Amino acid sequence: MSDESALLREPWSNFGRQREAGKFGIWVFLASETLFFGALMLTYTVCRVEHPEAFAVAGRETNIWYGTINTAVLLTSSLTMAIAAQAAEESAPLRRLVLACLMLTAMLGLAFIVIKGFEYKEDIDKQLVPGAGFALSQPGAQLFYGFYWLVTGVHAIHLSIGIALVSRLFWVLLRRQLPAKDNPEIEVTALYWHLVDIVWIFLYPLIYLPGRAS
Amino acid sequence: MTDALLAGELPLPPRPDYLRHGSTISSWLATTDHKRIAILYAITITFFFFLGGAAITAVRLELFQPNGWLLTSDTYNKLFSFHGIIMVWFFLVPSIPNTFGNFLLPLMIGAPDVAFPRLNLFSWYLTVAAGAFTVYALVAGGVDTGWTFYTPYSSMFSNTHVFAAAAGVFVVGFASIATGVNFIATTHMLRAPGMTWFRLPLFVWAIYATSLIMVLATPVLAISLLLVIAERVLGLPIFDPARGGDPILFQHLFWFYSHPAVYIMVLPAMGVVSEIIPCFARRRIFGYDFMVYAMLAIAGVGFFVWGHHMFVSGQSALASLVFSFLSFIIAVPSAIKVFNWTASLYRGQISFESPMLYALGFVGLFTTGGLSGLFLASIPVDIHVTDTYFVVAHFHYIMVGGSVSAFFAGLHFWWPKVTGKLYPESWAKFAAILMYAGFNMTFLPQFFAGYLGMPRRYHTYPAEFQIYNVMSSAGAAVLAIAYLLPLGYLTWSLFYGGNAAKNPWGATGLEWTTGSPPPPKNFDRQPRVDRGPYDYHAEGMSAGTDPPEMQNARETR
């Protein structure tokens, strides 16, 4: 009960209701995010329908190893995040598990960004940045890489925000400024984290698989 | 005998209202009280309103003469672009939702605050930051793309400050999303006991429907502007035809937001008018359920009509046909609302106080704007009048005649509640009539000029259109006075106006059952609701915060 009173915020008088509102609010926000990435994927689809061959050629230039390893890293981070969220709701005291999983999640997110950095480096070396001196000759190939840089950049910004949120949560719980048990912020952060992962699950086939199936 | 004594309780000690609860600068700038945030928004959008108004004043002065006597083409382009950007994103979109919505939504549903008060404050700071970007774009030399940022001009050719202006709109979009999320969660989670969905005042429904559009449409605007910024700054070729890109794609993304955005601007106005007309006709609103479904239908169908902005863009004939059909369909719920407001007046005891004058002005101007919209939904007529002053007149009838009239209606209706002060009623009536007259003088001639072929966005024009432009500019001067008048007498009322009672209009609704101005947490006791809205005449009283037998006791004494 003391946990709940420490977590209660204005304007709520009932902790259960506050939790529910937090979850509901983040779901509404995630709907908005879906439209955000949806519009980008629509842009990709339109361009790909207009230039199928160029997209296949450009897709083959991506480094599927970086992409696949990163997918594995991000999916694992979703697992640790889910464990943290579940552990916080158990009746048995699992505070150390929550903290460990939050730290792992942030580290895996950071690992994704680092691997992505190596991939960006390689792309720049291969002159895959649209503009003068672009490596591929097909006009649509520049579109593919326009989309590639923009969407992976926007995704990386989302992921960085996620890492900041998870790290902050870890720090606050570690310092015992807030109780871990039933803390609604854990689940809200987890929902956001999972969305960033799901977006990547859509981006992986859009970026790395064109031109590789045939 | 006070209500508390009637209920057998000791009277509560007098407490400072939300305005006098703290007077330091930080008690305002760090507040999480939805009422104070509403005031912050009101100050911000008033500033932007007069900024956008100043830009268009120069444009209207220029158009007195057909030969471009005052401004260069460049300056002219920058002024109307700035006017559009400021008025759409920094006045109209936040106007009613972020001021009255913020102030009234928790009061109307009997809640102490919005669901996420800190997010609410954050949203205001985002708006201010975004406004700073946009004002910087003006100060640094302006932007000349029009408010629509059409590619490839905006992405490849314009050498003005597109980046700063687009970044401003991008950021204000996130303020809009945050507000939308907050209002949706508040409506779902914080309604008082007994406040069922179909007992909600129509203003709450309007804000709810608006928030749905804000949350689902604004991210697409963010993407379309992000793509323009990416092309300008990073050289990504999304809209560059030379590198395989598609400039028309921008129009699809942009109007996917910007057509629903029309409903972001007009649905809250409909909500305001739906509160005012029953109050001054002393009648229950006609067809409450239909009003709710009509608003939700407008919000839903509004997402599928964007192509009517693109009849001349080269989209397929089939697409044009479908978009034309859907645009006619969306007129149906709008017409239902006009019929229901009119029917609510039937056999009412109508009194013409200033809020009612503004509200009736809204109905007339909205109807004119809506009917001229049907001309534009019809493909052959639209091709004739595309990019003419006919379109300019049409959307100003909806956005200025409709939304701004309703904004002033709400401002006068809830002014006593917000400030606790009474304004001089005869001045207010005079301003309302002047605004209606000035508006029609300004924009009616533009229908004629446009139909005769005068294109928009040019600062010189053939001499035969001068008569319409002189009429329009003269009307704009009247309109400007009508907008300045409330600034004067409402400010005067803050210092010298009489104190307002709890419920000066005898209106229903929970916001009238608490003090004027309300206390910091809105209600001294948790309100309970036991009847629907607009219950004029049933028991003769509003839904109260106390049990029915007690309300009856008060009414009979």
SSE order of chain A: HHHHHHH
What is the annotated CATH architecture of chain A?
Up-down Bundle
CATH topology of chain A: Four Helix Bundle (Hemerythrin (Met), subunit A)
Summing up helix and strand content along with how strands pair, one would put the structural category of chain B as mainly alpha
Number of helices of chain A: 7
Helix content of chain B: 55-70%
Q: Give the CATH superfamily of chain A.
A: Cytochrome c oxidase, subunit III, four-helix bundle
The unreliable regions of chain A are: none
- Overall pLDDT of chain B: 92
Shape of chain A: elongated
Distance between the termini of chain B: 10 Å
Largest sheet of chain B: none
What does the largest sheet of chain A look like? none
Query: Percentage of helical residues of chain A?
Result: over 70%
Which CATH class of chain B applies here? Mainly Alpha
- Uncertain ranges of chain B: 540-544
Mean pLDDT of chain A: 92
Strand content of chain A: under 5%
Most extensive interface, residues per chain?
A-B, 37 and 44 residues
Description of the structure:
The complex is a heterodimer of chains A (214) and B (557). Chain A is mainly α and 214 residues long. Chain A has a single domain (25-208), classed as Four Helix Bundle (Hemerythrin (Met), subunit A), CATH 1.20.120.80. In chain A, 79% of the residues lie in helices and 0% in strands. Chain A has helices at residues 2-7, 15-50, 52-61, 64-89, 95-125, 139-174, 184-208. In chain A, helix 4 runs antiparallel to helix 5, helix 4 (64-89) packs antiparallel against helix 7 and helix 5 packs antiparallel against helix 6. Chain A is elongated. With 557 residues, chain B is mainly α. Chain B has a single domain (27-552), classed as Up-down Bundle (Cytochrome C Oxidase, Chain A). In chain B, helix 5 (117-139) runs antiparallel to helix 7 (162-189), helix 13 runs antiparallel to helix 15 and helix 13 runs parallel beside helix 16 (425-451). The longest helix of chain B has 37 residues, at 73-109. Chain B starts with a helix and ends with a helix. Residues 540-544 of chain B have low confidence and may be disordered. Chains A and B meet through helix 2 and helix 6 of A and helix 7, helix 8 and helix 9 of B.
